[in-house]
Design a protein that fits this description.
Number of domains: 1
Strand content: 5-15%
Distance between the termini: 34 Å
Number of helices: 8
Largest sheet: 7 strands, parallel
Structural class: alpha/beta
Strand order of the largest sheet: 3-2-1-4-5-6-7
Helix content: 40-55%
Shape: globular
C-alpha cells in the first residue's frame, strides 16, 4: 500500500511503540509529526533519520499531553506544515504501579490526562479537517488492560477502558464521513514503559525482577513471548489501508492470547 500524500501525527513517538508506528507510516510514504519527551539531540537525530531514510517530511512537536492548548497547537502546526492531518495515532502513555489506597492522587490525574484525555483533545482538534477532506484514520493505542484488569494499576486500567469506549463513540459519530476510529490493544511489549514499571511491581508484589518478567508479565500471555513494536506498527499501517475501510469501532487484541483466556 502507499500513504504518499498523507500526513500523520503520532503522540508519544520518540521511543517504543509510537516511534515504530511513525517509522512504519513514513516507510509507506506518509509525512509524520513526532511528539514526546527526551533529549533534544536524540529527538533531532530521530527526526532527521526518518526524513533521510524514507524521503518524507518529519517534524517534531514537544506538546505536553497534559495541556489541551498545547495539544490543539500541535494539530494546528501539523495542518499548517503538511496541509492536512489524515492519520492520528494516540499512543502517549505513562504508568504507575501502586495499591489503590496508596495511589498518589497526582499520579492518577496525570495518567488519566495523558492516557485518556489527551486522545479526546487530539481527536477534537483533528476531526474538522478530516471531515472537510472526507478521509481520516484515528488509531488509539489501548492495551490488553482496555479489556481486562490487573491489580495495582487502577489508573492505567481505568484510562485504557475509557479509551476503548471513547473509540467506539467516535467511530459511530464519524461513520458516514470516511473516517474510521479503532483501538489496538497490545499485551506486554518490551518497551521503556514496561521495563520502567518492573521495580514498582517488584515492590508491590515482593518479587525479584526475573519473577516479575516470568510470573507477572509473560504469565499473562499464553505464547510466553513479548509482543514486538514492529508487530503493533504493522497493524497500524493496515488500519490506514483501503482494506480496513469498513473496520471502525474495533478493538484489536495483539496480546499473545492473553484476553482469550
Amino acid at each position: 500500500m502507499s500513504l504518499t500524500s498523507k500526513a500523520a501525527v503520532v503522540t508519544g513517538s520518540t521511543s517504543g511503540i509510537g516511534l515504530a508506528i511513525a517509522k512504519a507510516l513514513a516507510r509507506e510514504g506518509a509525512d509524520v509529526m513526532l511528539n514526546g519527551f527526551g533529549e533534544a539531540d536524540a529527538i533531532e537525530a530521530t527526526r532527521a533519520g526518518i526524513e533521510a531514510e524514507f524521503g518524507v517530511r518529519a517534524l517534531y512537536s514537544g506538546a505536553d499531553m497534559t495541556k489541551p492548548a498545547e495539544i490543539a497547537g500541535m494539530i494546528a502546526e501539523a495542518e499548517g506544515a503538511f496541509g492536512r492531518v489524515d492519520i492520528l495515532v494516540n499512543n502517549a502513555g505513562i504508568q504507575f504501579v501502586s495499591p489503590v489506597e496508596e495511589f498518589p492522587p497526582e499520579r492518577w490525574d496525570a495518567i488519566i490526562a495523558i492516557n485518556l484525555s489527551s486522545a479526546f483533545h487530539t481527536v477534537r482538534a483533528a476531526v474538522p479537517g478530516m471531515k472537510a477532506r472526507g478521509f481520516g484514520r484515528i488509531i488509539n493505542v489501548a492495551s490488553a488492560h482496555s479489556l481486562v484488569a490487573s491489580p495495582f494499576k487502577s489508573a492505567y486500567v481505568a484510562a485504557k477502558h475509557g479509551i476503548a469506549g471513547f473509540t467506539k463513540s467516535v467511530a459511530l459519530e464519524l461513520a458516514t464521513h470516511g473516517i474510521t476510529a479503532n483501538c489496538i490493544s497490545p499485551g506486554y511489549v518490551w518497551t521503556p514503559l514496561v521495563e520502567s514499571q518492573i521495580p514498582d511491581t517488584m515492590k508491590a508484589r515482593g518479587l525479584t525482577k526475573e519473577q516479575v518478567i516470568e510470573d507477572v508479565l509473560l504469565k499473562a500471555q499464553p505464547t510466553k513471548e513479548f509482543v514486538t513494536v514492529d508487530q503493533v506498527a504493522a497493524i497500524a499501517v493496515f488500519l490506514c489501508s483501503s482494506a480496513a475501510t469498513q473496520m471502525t469501532g474495533a478493538n484489536l487484541s495483539v496480546d499473545g492470547g492473553w484476553t482469550a483466556q
